[in-house]
Design brief:
Number of strands: 19
Shape: globular
Strand order of the largest sheet: 9-8-7-10-11-12-13
Number of helices: 21
Strand content: 15-25%
Helix content: 25-40%
Structural class: alpha/beta
Length: 586
């Protein structure tokens, strides 16, 4: 069958066949497949059902097995890795591991990330019997894990027979790449090491036939959109998160250059659109947009949303002042123009490139933006030994950014503070807006840093989120990573406080630097600091960029519990209002 290279990654050339026919095993085939699609690190937690499979992954010289502290973090790490590399993979054991990684895989599904989730399954002889196995819920039916994964993966393969194992594995992996979604592969524990004729040669490299638009549909969509936009007086473009899934970032900029329209980005699309471009005007996020950006977008008479996701969070509690009749919605495989035509099997990159050739240049909205724009203010001058404010912290983080860094923003007030950072060219940026699972950033930082070793990751994590997944700081140290983690200690779940306060939003304070020092335990390179004021922060940042530049650096920032961005205050009140709507009359 024809299969594929990972979107956005260059797979290494297949190595020469090693060994004899006897090396043709399921385990080796899977290992080579992962290497071919661009995976060089697999995040795992061992369990008795996957140990033999792990042996084969370890034996593959181009594959590095990264042992994680728990399955949830292994899944989050595969998510972060896929963001940087185009595809990620994790390996866990049956049911206890599978159900533990489930939340991370659901997050990858919501964020359109191809993650290969591999589970070591029961011995083939136990299928179809009345035997009760350990690591299960005590029933002889082994399908519970599969049923859980069916709703959060785009393909599932239960490999308990070598005759169709090759086909099942290749179909699942190629489906993940085509759909840009996670897949589930369960492999019986007694199969990885058994030779089989279907595995007797080096796997043929993956190749996917590129998707081509319906030509008539493409022509109609381009003609209707060009007519719609060329009649507009002050149109704008807004980039969304599905630009990544569609592989359309280059075509997006081609369209933007040709049109002359100002470029905004949805919050979940930050990092996918170059912010150094002269047409860039900021983040469009309704009432909490970048200054002057929201006004320009919402006053436009036509807006092109490219790859958007409109949910209650991105719409600030459904309060966007956007009108359907003024909009063009470009999804990865469909274009909808105002209240008029909606054309399917029209692919985003092809559409944008073709549209760019049909547009009249129109910079009216961009000129309006430049006319009204006033540069943002700077934090007020501090008093001597004044406690550190969050806006002062992010002023310093802004100065740390370059094309050799990447920002990981945890769910919480970091969402809003990181949105205000101006990203230099090639600076990475990731956060999990659709799923919003607190704790995601610890595993994602591990995975992203492992995939993008040319960048230094700067992670902004709240204390409440860190308590969920703190253990895998250990794995970062073991892997020799040099990320910088700002742990923002404001004594609780601040984002929840601004939506709906209560005693449940207060957490037990930890000695966070003490915890990380205990995890470090003198092995590997790790440096910590506790910061209370700007002078201490300045000194800590100088150390991370200087003598500790090759270490994992963990800086605990102590701030007041009510020190939040104004955007969180506004957003929280609007989301609270949406959550508290009374039931519709029956």
């Amino acid at each position: 069958m024809e299969t594929a290279n990972a979107v956005g990654s260059k797979a290494p050339a297949p190595a020469q066949v090693r060994g004899s026919v006897s090396s043709g095993t399921l385990g080796r085939h899977l290992a080579r497949r992962l290497v071919e699609i661009g995976v060089s690190d697999v995040f795992s937690v061992p369990g008795d059902f996957n140990l033999t499979l792990l042996d084969h992954l370890v034996a593959e010289p181009e594959l590095n097995l990264v042992g994680c502290c728990n399955e949830l973090n292994a899944g989050y790490a595969a998510d972060g890795y896929a963001r940087a590399r185009g595809v990620g993979a994790c390996v866990v054991t049956f049911t206890v591991g599978g159900l533990s990684v489930l939340n991370a895989i659901a997050g990858a599904y919501s964020e359109n990330l191809p993650v290969i989730c591999i589970v070591g399954g029961p011995n083939t002889n136990d299928y179809g019997t009345n035997r009760i196995l350990h690591h299960t819920i005590g029933l002889p039916d082994f399908s519970q894990e599969l049923r859980c994964f069916q709703t959060i993966t785009c393909s599932q393969a239960v490999v308990n027979n070598l005759d169709d194992a090759h086909e099942l594995i290749d179909t699942a992996i190629s489906t993940a790449l085509k759909e840009s979604k996670p897949v589930y592969i369960s492999i019986s524990c007694n199969l990885p090491g058994i030779p089989h004729p279907t595995f007797c040669r080096e796997p043929v490299p993956f190749f996917l036939v590129p998707k081509a638009s319906n030509e008539l549909g493409l022509e109609a969509a381009v003609e209707a959109t060009a007519d719609f936009l060329n009649k507009a007086v002050k149109p704008v473009i807004v980039g969304g998160p599905k630009l990544r899934e569609a592989g359309a970032q280059k075509a997006f900029m081609e369209f933007a250059e040709a049109s002359g329209f100002p470029i905004a980005v949805m919050p979940s699309g930050k990092g996918l659109v170059p912010e150094h471009h002269p047409h860039f005007i900021g983040t469009y996020w309704g009432a909490v947009s970048s200054s002057f950006c929201g006004e320009i977008v919402e006053s436009a008479d036509a807006y092109v949303f490219v790859g958007p996701i409109f949910n209650d969070y991105s719409s600030v509690g459904y309060s966007l002042l956007i009108k359907k009749e003024k909009s063009v919605i470009v999804q990865p495989n469909r274009v909808t123009i105002g209240n008029g035509p909606s054309l399917g099997w029209v692919f985003m990159a092809e559409f944008l490139s073709a549209l760019a050739k049909k547009l009249k240049k129109n910079s009216t909205a961009l000129e309006n933006y430049r006319r009204i724009y006033v540069p943002p203010g700077v934090p007020l001058k501090r008093e001597q030994n004044e406690p550190l404010r969050v806006n002062v912290l992010f002023k310093h983080i802004q100065a740390m950014l370059s094309g050799d860094t990447a920002i990981i923003s945890e769910t919480g007030d970091s969402w809003f503070n990181c949105q205000k950072l101006c990203l230099p060219e090639n600076c990475g940026y990731e956060f999990q807006m659709q799923y919003g699972s607190i704790g995601w950033s610890v595993g994602a930082t591990l995975g992203y840093a492992q995939a993008a070793k040319d960048k230094r990751v700067i992670a902004c994590i709240g204390d409440g989120s860190f308590q969920v997944t703190a253990q895998d700081i250990s794995t970062m140290i073991r892997c020799g990573q040099r990320s910088i983690i700002f742990l923002i200690n404001n004594s609780g779940y601040t984002i929840e406080v601004e939506i709906h306060d209560g005693p449940y939003n207060v957490i037990k304070n930890w000695d966070y630097t003490g915890l990380v020092n205990a995890i470090h335990n003198g092995e590997g390179k790790c440096w910590t600091a506790k910061v209370r004021n700007e002078d201490e922060l300045t000194k800590a940042i100088e150390t991370t960029m200087g003598e500790e530049k090759d270490s994992l650096c963990f800086i605990e920032i102590l701030v007041h519990k009510d020190d939040t961005s104004k955007e969180l205050l506004e957003w929280g009140s609007r989301v609270a209002a949406a959550n508290s709507r009374p039931p519709n009359p029956q």
